[in-house]
Amino acid sequence: MEQYLVLSGLSAAGTIAGSLPALLIRNLSHRSKDILLAYSAGVMVAASTYGLIPSALKLSNLYVLTFGILLGTILLTLLERYIPHTDPVHDADTAAVSTASRMLLIMSMTLHNLPEGLSTGISLADPEPHLGAIVSFAIGVQNLPEGFLIALVFATAQSRMLKPILYVCGVTAAEWLASLLGYNFGSELRFLIPYGLAFAGGAMLYIVYKELIPESHGDGNETPATFAFIIGTLTMIALTHGLD
Q1: 27 in the Ramachandran plot: left (φ > 0), alpha (ψ -120 to 50) or beta?
Q2: Which pLDDT score is estimated for 224?
Q3: pLDDT of residue 121
């Protein structure tokens, strides 16, 4: 439990850490945002394909893996369709973002962070000793640009710094609570852990392909974004091998 509290807390705190520079930097180019998003996408792909998916296969079989990945993908598709949300990247470019758009941004980022929190909690409940550290690091890195973009929207819309920090803390708390749910779920019902790992892998791949990659390639920065994606992937591969 102590390891869970430390790693899950550090992972969720990535959102807060990422938000701090945005309070000082009021403008960020599309190129920089695209590079950050693509790097995060590479980290998440490697965490899923080198951490979550192999662990799910080791504990079960291909049928369980397929079911869990499809379940994660279908659930996020339904959430995306029926829960209103907005595009955080393009809204962050405009200083005059409406209050409604800012609220939709918070809902969107919270929606994305819930499966990430579940991924962290489930991986920390897994018997594999290094899986929790790998996934926690991956989610923490991925949370850095998310926190930056959330804070950037609110920082450019108003002069006060307290509200951006409070909103970022709210998103962080939601992710941590989701990780607690995932950890308790995996600890009490260990036979469902491979399903949970596969579910988390599918959810992460969905977010990467549906959100992060398209956003990082939408403004003519495909080449630097592609290199950032590869570097992010290599970062997680190196971490995985370093923990073996």
Answers
A1: beta
A2: 93
A3: 84
Q: What is the mean pLDDT of each run of 10 residues along the chain (244 residues)?
A: 75 79 67 82 83 82 92 83 58 49 65 76 76 78 72 60 76 86 79 80 83 81 92 84 65
Both structure tokens of 57: 């296969």
Q: Whose structure tokens read 């869970």?
A: 4
Phi, psi at residue 91, to the nearest 5°? -65, -30
* 220 φψ region: left (φ > 0), alpha (ψ -120 to 50), beta (else): left
